[in-house]
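request received
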Amino acid sequence: MTQNGFYFDSSRCTGCKTCELACKDYKDLGPETLFRKIYDFEGGTWTQGEGSVWTTDSFVYHVSAACNHCVAPACQMVCPAEAILRDEDTGLVYIDLELCINCELCVTACPYSVPKMDIERGIVNKCDGCLERVTEGKKPICVEACPLRALDLDDIATLRSSYGDVDFIPPLPEPSTGPNLVISSAPAATSPASASGFVANMKEVA
Amino acid sequence: MSHKKIGRSKEKEVRELTRRSFVKGSALTAAAAVASAGAVGSLYACANDGATGSGESLENAEQVIWSYCERCGAICALQYHTLDGEITYVESDNTGSPEFGDLQLRACLKGRSSRRMINDPDRLKYPMKRVGKRGDGEFEQITWDEAIELLAEKLKYTIDTYGNEAIYVGYGVRTRAIGRLLNALGGYLSCYGNYSVAQLSGALPYTYGASVPFAGSPMREAANADLVVMFGNNPCGTGMGGAGAGYDLAWVRASGTKIVNIDYRLNDTSAGFPDEWIPIRPGTDAALASALCYVFIAEGFADEEFLQKCCIGYDEQTMPEGAPQNSSYKDYIMGTGYDGVAKTPEWASPITQIPVERIYELAREIGNAKAAYICQGWGSQRHSNGENTCRAIAMVPIISGNIGRPGTHTGSRERDGISPVAGYPSGIPTGDNPVKTQISFFSWFDAIDRGAELTALHDGVRGKDKLDTGIKFIWAPGANWLINQNSDINRTHDILIDESKCEFLVLSEIIMTESAKYADLLLPETYLAEIETITGMYAGFQYYKGIVFGQQVAEPPFESRSFFDALADVAEKFDLREDYTEGKTSSEWVRQIYEEAREKDPELPTYDEGVAMGVYKQELPISAALTDFREDPDANPIDTPSGKIEIYSSRLAEMAASWEFDDPADIITPIPVYAPGYESYESTSEEFPFVLSGFHFKGRANSSFGTVDVLKQSNRQQVWINPLDAETRGIQNGDVTRVSNARGTVEIEAKVTPRILPGCLAISQGAWHAADMNGDKVDKGGNINTLTSHHPSPLAKANPQHNTIATIVKV
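response:
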């Protein structure tokens, strides 16, 4: 089995949300349901100099996040219906909607808040890495959509050999589930000022 | 695996069922759509490698049809996937290499949401006639015959009673078809300029001639520079598509070129790279530019050879005949000019709020660079002092000699491409307008209100000393400038609702916009993907030629009609059908316009080949602008009167002496100077302590897509305020606030963010105005134009929508 994972280059990401909206279009999701979401992570302070002059260490960077198709998926572990499965060919983790009983245990278990209750349809669902497309040899819709080429999906081993093994930058949670995720950090993500950062768009990612 | 298949197909059913909600109840439309999409789809689906038919029976009915999104300048290709004639989702350009740096016309989040706009529940269904008070948005359905009859009758009445000059057609998506019709009827009052770039296109030609401001170096040329310096530019927020300038800039950054991003907001083009940002007070770019030029001259970075050889008005040696003593640019900068003030960094710092040492540092970075690519977006010029500002920014490359060499540009916006095809409907030939009178695009409300008072010297009327009549008939085609995108909505409303002034308003639209509510006659228009179209690439597409062959994806819903066809019926009322159509259908016009392009460029594919390809793209070589001019300006003049760069413009000197202004803040000057302009930061007061500016928002293209629910959720309409300002007013992130000034009030959520300079507020333009105009008029849509001013900029008579003063309180 190939284990696929996502690659995200935060130095390329402009927070444009094309990935998110392409996903919404392809998966036909309403306003309340996000399979991919973009955190606006901002921070920094302002200092007034002589006169009305200002200096600042303010920053922003964005993190585009979807399902990490983890080695040890927290969602799968809590699912009483054994409805969360890993595709044998691609390693992508998906919810079998026939088996799912909509108990929402996975919704609260996932440290990345990936599974969502789709209220409009009354089902729990999540990013499946565009399993259909990947099986056909295509990239997920979000990857193909990114105007800046900041996303990819590939064999996680290939990604790690190309880009390293960083799988965490704020505001993502500290890894605990073996995320199949590789991140390239923007300069802002590793600067001292980033310690003061906060998610600036909570209402857009909730 | 069997589990997977069951699960997947259930999901698919869920998906397909919910997608059907829009066409439900319109079986006739759906049936027609099947026939149409089937006819084209079967022919063109093959263009999309592997996108059709993966074995399941449902997918056998899937078609893939090319069209495009043209809502901003950066036109992006779209492949509509349809199932039984209904759009299921869109893909964009996935032809060619997907590698970073390679060329794909990838749509942004808006183009990707086109299905939602096409299926908007507020799509206009029928022709409608106003029944309530103008602006209340109350209409009754009428037939197309009645609509055509009414339109023809009002046209005839207006021409007979007031003359053709009383008919105004502003610019918009479908203007050219109207122009074609009205020109056959004796013409109409047309406009110059536009809401996007009027100050720059009105002023920078005095420095550079008409063509250079839009024909500099492509952004990718900056890979040959050490440094990119951008004023008021956010290409990752404006032309956001995958082949736009933002993508090119990311590629330039990856090549190792340093970027400097001068803006009052830390915009998303520098997301992840905050060190690129120099915060600046809105409207003061000319002060920074002047101080940079001071350091260039004082520290020996001025390119004296280039200035003497290629420029007029730099110093006493290069002044034109008749110019007064001490009126050169060097005099102005070094303190020997009319104001006797040296434009030092110490002078500029309190104006711009940039530290003195940072200004010196930037000047020296530019001065020491082997090449600097210096450009401006359209943010800096959309101010009451925008004409001087955009010319002053151009002085940075001019004085430092960063022009006409590899890696350099002109100081204007990064180069636009040249479309290889005129396009349809964007390039329908209009013929000549017999009415030569023109007003600024930003004068129409005054031309309704003050009619014949508008003059050439006071209001920028062209072709005549003054108007003979006010506007009595407005035809606004697919344009939201009537209310939403024009300044001072409350005053505009008052002007529009007076039916004794403008007597008839006709709009064609796809959905019920705020502007459409003011129509007397409202015509339902087709969406681009509902007709056969063609477009070439221009803005943002700078280093290749591209064409998208748009085919009909879906039938126009309900009674909406192609505008070109509807106008043919109007022409018939005047016995001009043949003149108007020349006997050709829309489809035949598309082909004719394309064949005209092919005659000029035989490299282009045949029309049928192009349709099979969907998108045609051909890379072009990249080179810096003005290299020939720099080498030998006499042999390769630019199109100014002198053939050289006119730092001092004698034409502007004449206008400065003859044009009339009501306010001393409005000035025209022969050399570019810093002047704060009307309603600048200097106008702030205890009552209105903030400078409020606007910006283009990723969630909308101007007002387009402004009703799409998924875009609104992901891109909340907010007012940006610095934490220091928010704290003293008890405002927290997410609080509802009211932003007000003398013109109006908007109610809007606060985004408390360190990404904006203290003392400033920012509201993205284009949000849909939502106020009870018969009640308190508080705009709960958060439209910045509830607050912006009608006071036109001095030279271009244009929209000063980026400088306004205001206050903010927590609700």
